[in-house]
Amino acid sequence: MKRFFKHIYLTGRFFTSVSILVLLFIVAYMFPGLLVMVQMLFFVFLGLVMLDFLLLFKQKGIRASRVLPEKLSNGDDNPIEISLQNNYNFTSHLQIIDELPFQYQKRDFGINTELKRQASKKITYTLRPLQRGEYHFGNLNLYVKSPISLVSRRFQFGKDAMVPNYPSFLQLKKYMLLAFSNKIFEYGLKKIRRIGYTMEFEQIKHYVQGDDLRNINWKATAKSNQLMVNQYQDERSQPVYSVIDKGRVMKMPFEGLSLLDYAINASLVISNVALKKQDKAGIFSFSRKVENRVVAERRPSQMNIILETLYNLDTDFVESDFSRLYVDVKRHLNQRSLLLLYTNFETLDALHRQLPYLKAIAKNHLLVVIFFENTELQKLTNKMAKNTYAIFEKTIAEKFIYEKKLIVNELQKHGIQSILTPPEHLTINTINKYLEIKARGLL
């Protein structure tokens, strides 16, 4: 019996009706002639309540299920689908309350809808997770009202569902599809003019209009009595490593997502692009020591290994040890590699402390230092200063922005490639730099 009453809820219309009846009884006390009419209204109200109970509890009711993806994509909008089936012989008014994972700290999430008699319906809403890890969903609660709407019946479905939140694999799919659909330039990716001849010989073929005349093979032309040209292909099987700083500087959040998560999402995409370009992709992270290592390979399972490794990566809130990074790179990377180093420098002094190690790494490898613009400071400089305090804030912000540009110049002065990027454009700018390096044959 207790379980039965746990699923009964009184609606706002019920309490409004009760309040009106109480007022009418008070008026009837002062005007006794109205008492019989008020009593009749009271019994009509009781009859409607009983009828509402019978409508809601005598029939099979509502069936529902929550359809969750196999895994969530961090920082992206993930669709969650709710399937509904109305077994009542009347149009039902539904309030859907889905118990979201605790990471959202949202206790007022609800969807109101109507479902016609014996009809089915699908409702989709989106969630944007901002932390990797396990997301536990609670009950899917449905509060159903009949057309009378004095009583509501609760249904519960889908208890205790868990979905892991992985690095942004939706970005990975998006850039793959864009590459195949030739729309990738709309997103900022640019064509890079090929410079020099740092490509591998592939074959000799007949000349067709548009081939580079400088590639004509005169010996083959003389033998076949037709113009023949050498065909080249990009150099392949070059190691490309995403090196992720997981020290405390990478914990800084932008639009809810930490710099570390931006770096992880970009590393996943660039690893996939490198593998599609027939290069070897690998990753490792560092702070106090170097760990989470995936050796650069081209095996079929490489992306799954990288994805699982990135899923478990987190900051440890300590100062990163670049000397340890240099020693590990020198010890384990014997072949010249492209190292995409995701880190962050806020001041020129912070760079100067690590510059000797970066220069030492760049002697044997092609090092690209990727660090972040502070977009909040950029917003601050665009505001109109209305008082002395605002002028002071704006001046300090402009100083920090200028210092970031000095860091880029300092790295260039020592022959180290760099990318200074807003966090939201990190993936695009990293792919651009990789394509530029491949086209120019710098590796």
SSE-based structural type: alpha/beta
CATH topology of the largest domain: Rossmann fold
- Total count of strands: 21
Strand content: 25-35%
Over the alpha carbons, how many angstroms does the gyration radius reach? 32 Å
Give the N-to-C terminal Cα separation: 75 Å
Helix count, DSSP H or I runs of 4 or more residues: 12
Assigned CATH class of the largest domain? Alpha Beta
Low-confidence segments, ≥5 residues, pLDDT <50? 193-198
Q: What's the architecture of the largest domain, going by CATH?
A: 3-Layer(aba) Sandwich
How many domains would you count in the coordinates? Answer: 3
Helix percent band: 25-40%
Mean pLDDT: 86
Please state how the strands of the largest beta sheet are arranged side by side: 18-17-14-19-20-21
How does the major sheet shape up?
6 strands, mixed
Using the alpha-carbon principal axes, give the shape. elongated
User: CATH H level of the largest domain: which superfamily?
Assistant: von Willebrand factor, type A domain
What structural keywords apply?
Rossmann fold, 39% helix, alpha/beta, five-stranded antiparallel beta sheet, 443 residues, single chain, Immunoglobulin-like
Layout of helices and strands:
Elements lengths: L1 H4 L2 E3 L1 H19 L4 H23 L4 E6 L4 E2 L4 E9 L5 E7 L12 E5 L4 E8 L5 E5 L2 E6 L5 E7 L3 E6 L2 H13 L18 E7 L11 H7 L3 E6 L5 E7 L7 E2 L2 E2 H18 L3 E7 L3 E8 L4 H10 L10 H11 L5 E5 L5 H17 L1 E7 L2 H8 L5 H26 L3 E5 L4 H15 L3
Parallel strand pairs: 3-11, 14-17, 14-19, 19-20, 20-21
Antiparallel strand pairs: 1-10, 2-4, 4-7, 5-6, 5-9, 8-11, 9-10, 12-13, 15-16, 17-18
